[in-house]
Amino acid sequence: MEGVEEIKNFINIINTRDLVLKEYKEMKIEELSNEIRNTIKFQHESFQRIEEFEMKGVQQDLIKYAKMICKNTTEREISKIQEVYLKKIENEYLKSKK
After folding, report:
1. In the chain, which end has fewer C-beta atoms inside a 10 angstrom radius, N or C?
2. Residues whose CB falls within 8 Å of the CB of residue 46, separated by 6 or more in sequence, listed in order
3. CA 26 → CA 40, 71, 72, 73, 85, distances in Å?
């Protein structure tokens, strides 16, 4: 049962990450780039941790749920950052062309 509680706590960590609202529009391009890297790193580390739960034999339904939540949360976060990032790059590029 210890593994079950661990993965439930881990799922809560993933869910609360989604609640952290950041003002991406206010960030500079370098900061946005760093945010994308950090999110990808979080996703990678999360999937490694989920694999550890799999090796421990934690309930498969919880593992599938954790994978789904992690994937959806991080992809949503990356999409938000990328949208702002690409607009800023486009604006900077267009400014330099004028």
Report:
1. C
2. 10, 14, 70, 74
3. 21, 26, 24, 21, 11
